[in-house]
Amino acid sequence: MQTVLVFCHPRRDSYNGTLLSAVTECIEKKGRSYKVIDLYADGFDPRLDAQDLVLYEKGQTTDGKVKGYQKMLKASDELIIIAPIWWYELPAIFKGFLDKVLLPGFAYERDKNGDLVGKLTNIKRTTIITTSEAPAYTLLKPQASYVRSILMKGALTDIGLKNIIWKHIGNMNSPRGEKKRKDFLVDIKHHFTMAP
């Protein structure tokens, strides 16, 4: 099995890019294989157009990139998402990734009551790494808890993911930002060095 990383930042020379490099370095040191889905570099189109909507319930899409992304997810036992928080959420390109890639029949099916049954149970561990200029506490307010309530307890759990961890750095450009970024990088490296 392998690790798949979903990178959701338009610039590799950003702090998010630094985090991606640190994580992949830790994975390489463990001798694990990995794949990076770089949504911006791939030119991924997050829009679900009319044709895709017609095909959605059949678990199909017109987007040629989707099957490749699905193949990577199915071949993985670990998922890592690296993204900034913009206006309390991950970038829109990530929402489009969820909409277009997590298709019925691939990511989930419905039971006789219509409830979702997750099919990506091959992914045993998920880590979400986010960054923001806003203080971390603002993301814990009920109206701003997208990562915890919508993503972790909703979408990712619904498709069968377990052991979901969220690592976040807030206030990263504050006067203490440089130290915070260095400390967070150490924490991330430690997390992935200690993880099985």
Automatic annotation (TrEMBL):
UniProt keyword annotation of Cytoplasm present: no
Keywords (A to Z) from UniProt: Oxidoreductase
GO cellular component terms, semicolon-separated: cytosol
Transmembrane annotation, as ranges: none
Record InterPro entries: Flavodoxin_fold, Flavoprotein-like_sf, NAD(P)H_dehydrogenase_qn
GO molecular function annotation: NAD(P)H dehydrogenase (quinone) activity
Flavodoxin-like fold domain location: 1-186
Superkingdom of source: Bacteria
Pfam families the UniProt entry points to: Flavodoxin_2
Record-linked PANTHER family: NAD P H OXIDOREDUCTASE-RELATED, NAD(P)H DEHYDROGENASE [QUINONE] 1 ISOFORM 1
Family: Belongs to the NAD(P)H dehydrogenase (quinone) family.
Protein name in UniProt: NAD(P)H dehydrogenase (Quinone)
Species: Parasphaerochaeta coccoides (strain ATCC BAA-1237 / DSM 17374 / SPN1) (Sphaerochaeta coccoides)
Lineage, uppermost ranks: Bacteria, Pseudomonadati, Spirochaetota, Spirochaetia, Spirochaetales
